Write a sequence for this structure.
């Protein structure tokens, strides 16, 4: 995958053709080499990966390959609107039309090709898979995992921006967060299908590698594997952070907040009604993004307090109007 703008902190990315060659190997056989424990554990892993192979997203995910084709015709991209189905397409349009996402734009997006231009090909493809998998979440446990993933993605993006990461590198960090616990989703879907309970320690041990298989299965950017299947907080070169470390910081915050509050709780200044002091803030954007994904119940933004100077400015403005 080509680098864009700034690749500082970027490592461990590989040629997508190499990834495609490896994905042709049996995912079960490849994974078994790394499975420690008894035969029962290996059989469970085999079942989970088979579940991944058979999972029904509600559409043929290979139609998304058109987004990787630089020579794709506009009509081919526009056809995705119907090929992806109502659930996925509708949500992508909602996201693209939200003021809380993507580049500055004007007007209402009505064509799918404009959705892709607004969000970017990789984000469109990865978000479509995320939305489709989320539609399979029928239990609160699974819904919380998707909320945790989304929260990790959003915080990763914010942290990456503060570190000065841009373009493709920043979007890679955000998408890595979006799939950080997706391995757990597949493990729980398998357990639900088989009517069994999986040990929490077993899930914690294996979900990163199962998550990597999710990336491979749905032909998502190979660079995401080094994020979702990377357990150590990693420094690179002389004094740089690996992209996985940025996501790990965000994930740690999300994990602590969900364990304590059952949702992401942050404190942020919020826009004042007149937009005099703050017309927009990170906290407001974050809350809006959760709402756009129908995850509003999993975030709480505690409004920050205005400084004395800000209070005076508001009072002066209101008294003069």
């Amino acid at each position: 995958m080509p680098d864009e703008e700034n690749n500082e902190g970027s490592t461990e990315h590989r040629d997508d053709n190499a990834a495609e060659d490896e994905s042709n190997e049996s995912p079960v056989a490849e994974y078994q080499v790394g499975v420690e424990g008894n035969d029962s554990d290996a059989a469970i892993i085999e079942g989970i990966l088979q579940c991944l192979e058979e999972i029904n997203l509600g559409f043929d995910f290979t139609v998304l390959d058109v987004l990787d084709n630089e020579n794709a015709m506009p009509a081919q991209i526009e056809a995705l609107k119907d090929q992806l189905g109502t659930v996925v397409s509708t949500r992508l349009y909602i996201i693209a039309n939200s003021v809380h996402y993507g580049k500055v734009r004007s007007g209402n997006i009505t064509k799918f090709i404009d959705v892709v231009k607004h969000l970017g090909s990789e984000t469109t493809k990865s978000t479509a898979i995320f939305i489709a998998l989320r539609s399979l979440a029928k239990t609160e446990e699974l819904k919380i995992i998707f909320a945790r993933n989304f929260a990790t993605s959003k915080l990763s993006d914010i942290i990456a921006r503060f570190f000065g990461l841009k373009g493709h590198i920043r979007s890679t960090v955000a998408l890595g967060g979006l799939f950080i616990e997706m391995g757990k989703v597949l493990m729980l879907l398998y357990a639900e299908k088989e009517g069994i309970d999986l040990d929490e320690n077993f899930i914690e041990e294996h979900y990163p590698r199962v998550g990597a298989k999710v990336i491979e299965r749905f032909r998502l950017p190979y660079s995401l594997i080094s994020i979702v299947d990377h357990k150590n907080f990693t420094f690179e070169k002389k004094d740089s952070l690996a992209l996985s470390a940025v996501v790990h910081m965000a994930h740690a915050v999300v994990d602590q907040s969900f364990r304590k509050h059952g949702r992401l709780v942050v404190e942020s200044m919020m826009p004042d009604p007149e937009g005099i002091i703050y017309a927009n803030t990170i906290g407001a954007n974050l809350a809006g993004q959760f709402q756009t994904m129908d995850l509003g119940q999993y975030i709480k933004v505690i409004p920050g307090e205005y400084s004395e100077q800000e209070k005076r400015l508001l009072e002066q403005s209101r008294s003069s109007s």
